[in-house]
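so my prof wants the structure for this chain in the tokens format not the other one, which i didnt know existed until like an hour ago. anyway here's the sequence
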Amino acid sequence: MSRMAAGAAWEKWIDRACACPAEYPFGTKFILPDGSKWVCMDRGDAIVTDQNGVIWLDLLTKKARYPHGKIVRVEVRR
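here's what i got, hopefully its the right format
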């Protein structure tokens, strides 16, 4: 079993965990427009906040929620 940066096995977090930029601590919650809640459990080199303040998240899903690169508003709870 491989682990995410936060130490948890990714297989147990499908449809609940995401990779988020390093300025957000592990455990930060991101709520998507559909009401789904995602917990920051991982990192990645391409997972950043861009110069316009857009947060890039990588959702751990079996099926994509949004087309690649689609921008949606999220609520952040630290």
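also thought this was worth mentioning. The first strand starts at residue 17 and ends at 19.
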